[in-house]
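As a warm-up, study this chain.
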Amino acid sequence: MVKRINEEGNYHCVYINVESAQTARNDVARGMLAILSKLKTAGKVLAQKPFDVDYQAILAENGSDSSLAAALRNICENLGKPLVLFIDEIDALANHAT
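Now compare it with the structure written out below.
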């Protein structure tokens, strides 16, 4: 699906799997950094500079709760085309405490 959307040329499309953020458990900042790292890696497939930003700085400036939104806003403002983002395994981040 990602390949097809990118080939059509109307959008930039990336896929990230955020399951690795689950290892951060209750450390939201660490989990967010893992997600932002996945976003940066996914952007390399497109060879688009807007994905190559300092995510540590975004996290420090915006905090754990707003970092993903800030990073995506930064990317989208500089892409030139709309972004389609597929996020897989987001349910892995849910708190399953009993």
